[in-house]
């Protein structure tokens, strides 16, 4: 921490970086391209949708990590300013592979919105258990809010005449909302290494929390492996679909959006 960072106000400390603005611009550009293709499921249209979803997914990862960092800043950790976390610059995060490469690979392989892990919070300078829980909850809550906004846009605009003329774009929105929900559900599991465990960890006996933290990486790998097993995979995605249906998104547009996203695949939708 530095004296300058300690005196910085929350609003002034938040400065979107050029890198983040490039991600936003890419999301808008590919979104406009997907919009322009209307209902044509051609290979160029699918590539445009792929770019839109991928860029928007990276944008949501930035917002996820920013949520952690901003609440930490407001709770007393001024060090996040010096680390560059409040600029939404993914290049400032501690582990670009874990935070971006692996989550991107997982949506390419199986349409799973895998949460990343990037910002290091100085927990020792933050008082109160509730603040620690809120810091952990901020990331997945950003995914939930993003999903709600996307689902509301889809529900209110995709079904009207104008929306029906731009089906490629809206199917991408549906699939993107689905990815946000998968990320939120996974990250809210009370498993060491995930934000769900960070929410409950302040209320656990210190010995239990330390032992859990020591196996956090292994627990996360076991979870990922389990997701590839048929029964676990079906149960997980079934639960996610229950949530998306509650938001007004049924399986059909999500699965169609997923098929369009995988532009390299010729499997039927």
From TrEMBL:
Domain of life of the native organism: Bacteria
Cofactor or coenzyme needed: Zn(2+)
Protein name according to UniProt: Site-2 protease family protein
A Gene Ontology BP annotation from the UniProt entry: proteolysis
Listed GO CC annotations: plasma membrane
Lineage of the species this protein comes from: Bacteria, Bacillati, Actinomycetota, Actinomycetes, Streptosporangiales
Provenance organism: Actinomadura decatromicini
Membrane topology reported for the UniProt record: Multi-pass membrane protein
InterPro entries to which the protein is assigned, alphabetical: Metallopeptidase_M50B, Rip2-like
Transmembrane segments: 17-35, 47-71, 96-121, 133-155, 167-191, 212-230
Entry GO MF terms: metal ion binding; metallopeptidase activity
Swiss-Prot/TrEMBL keywords: Cell membrane, Hydrolase, Membrane, Metal-binding, Metalloprotease, Protease, Transmembrane, Transmembrane helix, Zinc
């Amino acid at each position: 921490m530095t004296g300058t960072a300690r005196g910085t106000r929350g609003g002034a400390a938040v400065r979107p970086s050029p890198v983040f603005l490039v991600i936003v611009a890419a999301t808008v550009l590919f979104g406009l391209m997907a919009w322009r293709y209307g209902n044509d499921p051609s290979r160029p249209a699918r590539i445009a949708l792929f770019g839109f979803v991928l860029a928007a997914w990276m944008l949501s990862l930035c917002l996820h990590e920013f949520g952690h960092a901003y609440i930490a800043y407001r709770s007393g950790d001024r060090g996040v300013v010096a680390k560059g976390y409040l600029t939404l610059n993914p290049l400032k995060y501690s582990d670009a592979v874990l935070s971006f490469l692996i989550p991107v690979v997982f949506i390419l392989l199986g349409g799973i919105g895998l949460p990343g892990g990037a910002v290091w919070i100085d927990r020792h300078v933050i008082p109160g258990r509730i603040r620690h829980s809120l810091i952990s909850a901020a990331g997945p809550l950003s995914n939930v809010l993003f999903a709600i906004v996307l689902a509301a846009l889809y529900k209110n605009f995709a079904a009207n005449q104008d929306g029906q003329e731009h089906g490629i774009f809206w199917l991408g929105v549906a699939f993107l909302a689905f990815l946000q929900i998968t990320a939120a559900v996974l990250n809210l599991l009370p498993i060491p290494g995930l934000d769900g465990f960070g929410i409950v960890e302040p209320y656990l006996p210190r010995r239990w929390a330390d032992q859990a933290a020591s196996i956090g990486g292994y627990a996360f790998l076991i979870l990922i492996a389990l997701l590839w097993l048929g029964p676990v995979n079906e149960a997980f995605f079934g639960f996610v679909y229950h949530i998306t249906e509650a938001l007004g998104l049924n399986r059909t547009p999500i699965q169609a959006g997923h098929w369009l996203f995988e532009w390299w695949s010729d499997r039927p939708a």
